[in-house]
Design a protein that fits this description.
The protein is α/β, with parallel strands linked by helices. It has one domain: 3-Layer(aba) Sandwich (Rossmann fold), CATH 3.40.50. Helix content is 41%, strand content 25%. The protein is built from 10 helices and 10 strands. The strands form 2 sheets. A 6-stranded mixed beta sheet has the order 6-7-8-3-9-10, with helices on both faces. The two termini are 27 Å apart.
Length: 246
């Protein structure tokens, strides 16, 4: 579903993403972990066709992001870190607007909106102005908007940022329900969020991919070295050249 091969992005003399390669298959929830400035959001922007790669290959659902950007956009649901909402619209009207923008006919639109209002538990705020919704409900509205066209690939950028513990737990449940038949890339700088939600972990630092491994394998490795998972990750970040060649 997602395939990156030697993916690179430069800004003048600055290399923001440095020849990274990875894949995300249907049914996988993969955590994209790294400190602020690691290059995670840059990769998501290339996946969403907002930016083009400087070098390498990047495809989504079999479509090259440079050669077929419209097909890529039809294949993805993108939940950005900062909600892209129209505060002056009511929740249901906003979702209907997004569905029409994706080209859904009226019958399909109403069916999808109804299904997502139920799935994302939005019935209490359907007739409320988006701008008056709490942070938790705004994230749910954003997620519903990203799912309206039933995308095969879901990109989540810091999806639990600003949520309280109950809202975080509810969001994890939503992600678990969405995994079937979809490739999900969950970007975060919070290790606990990634390990609680994701099957696999991609660790990015200074634009380089240091780790690509299943979460349970990393946990076992940390135990064998007498560390917790956080310690293992910190060691990788502190010694990127050693970890990259391991």
């Amino acid at each position: 579903m997602i395939r990156a091969a030697a993916l690179t992005r430069d800004f003048g003399d600055l290399r923001a993403v440095d020849q990274i390669s990875f894949e995300v298959q249907p049914g996988e929830v993969v955590g994209f972990l790294g400190p602020n400035g690691a290059g995670k959001t840059m990769v998501l922007r290339m996946l969403s066709t907002y930016l083009t790669p400087t070098a390498g290959e990047l495809s989504v659902a079999g479509h090259d992001v440079v050669a077929s950007p419209l097909e890529v956009r039809r294949s993805i649901g993108y939940l950005p870190e900062h909600d892209a909402l129209f505060d002056g619209m009511r929740v249901r009207a906003f979702l209907e607007f997004c569905g029409r923008a994706h080209g859904l006919d009226e019958a399909a639109l109403q069916a999808r909106v109804a299904a997502l209002v139920e799935r994302c538990d939005l019935s209490r705020v359907c007739d409320q102005l988006v701008g008056t919704c709490s942070k938790g409900y705004r994230r749910r509205v954003s997620l519903a908007a990203a799912l309206l066209h039933d995308p095969k690939v879901l990109l989540l950028d810091e999806p639990t940022h600003g949520l309280d513990p109950l809202q975080v737990a509810a969001f994890r449940e939503h992600v678990a329900e969405l995994r079937e038949g979809r490739a999900v890339l969950f970007s975060s700088h919070v290790l606990a969020e990634v390990t609680a939600t994701c099957d696999r972990l991609l660790l990015l630092h200074h634009g380089r991919l240091l780790i690509d491994e299943r979460t349970e394998v990393l946990t076992e490795r940390a135990d064998s070295e007498g560390k917790d998972l956080e310690g293992l990750i910190l060691d990788a970040v502190r010694s990127p050249h050693e970890e990259a060649s391991a």
